[in-house]
């Protein structure tokens, strides 16, 4: 059995919503982008920040199912997802984290990592049964992104540092910073 190359380039699909989100991140044009790890991209879910810190971890590979990944890549992806979850928990201090891997509507492997707080109006229900999304200002997104990135750097420092070396020139692991908020 051969080992998969963990730092393989992103595999895009032209008609995939998540691939489009990733392409915008790679181009420095996605204000929800936080970091690129070896196997996936970390985004804040800008449309659902009534759950402060709601994060998405999207695979660099456009596949519909977890079992579609070879075992080496699958293990790395799951470890990074757990590290992202830990970072979300540390950064936002929720009472509980919910994890969801669905794909019914968007068949690109991506995790929803959803902080739930003590003052949650519907603690026994999924977030999809709750209130309508609440948009937050770009400035607030920047502070959420900074908090999450600080924790990611602590939690997955080795993965982020390894990614810096392996990205194509000009792509870089884009630290979402205050300048990104001013891009159109």
Number of domains: 1
Rounded average pLDDT: 80
Strand content: 5-15%
Give the CA-based shape. Answer: globular
- The N- and C-terminal alpha carbons lie at a distance of 46 Å
Unreliable stretches covering 5 or more consecutive residues? 1-8, 167-174, 178-184
Helix content: 25-40%
Rg (CA only): 16 Å
Q: If helices are DSSP runs of H or I spanning 4 or more residues, what is the number of helices? A: 4
Profile the largest sheet: 5 strands, antiparallel
CATH topology description: HIT family, subunit A
CATH class: Alpha Beta
Widest sheet: strand ordering: 1-2-3-5-4
Going by CATH, the architecture would be 2-Layer Sandwich
The tally of beta strands, per DSSP, is: 5
CATH superfamily: HIT-like
Helix and strand content put the structural class at alpha+beta
Question: Would you list the SSEs in sequence order as H and E?
Answer: HEEEHEEHH
Task: Throw out a few tags for this protein.
single chain; 184 residues; alpha+beta; HIT family, subunit A; five-stranded antiparallel beta sheet; 5 strands; disordered N terminus
Describe this structure in words.
This protein has one domain (18-173): HIT-like (HIT family, subunit A, 2-Layer Sandwich), CATH 3.30.428.10. It has helices at 17-26, 71-92, 138-155, 157-166; strands at residues 33-36, 40-44, 55-59, 96-101, 110-116. Strands 1-2-3-5-4 form a five-stranded antiparallel β-sheet, sandwiched between helices. It starts with 16 loop residues before the first helix and ends in an 18-residue tail after the last helix. Mean pLDDT is 80; it is low at 1-8, 167-174 and 178-184. With 184 residues, the chain is α+β, with helices and mostly antiparallel strands. The longest helix has 22 residues, at 71-92.
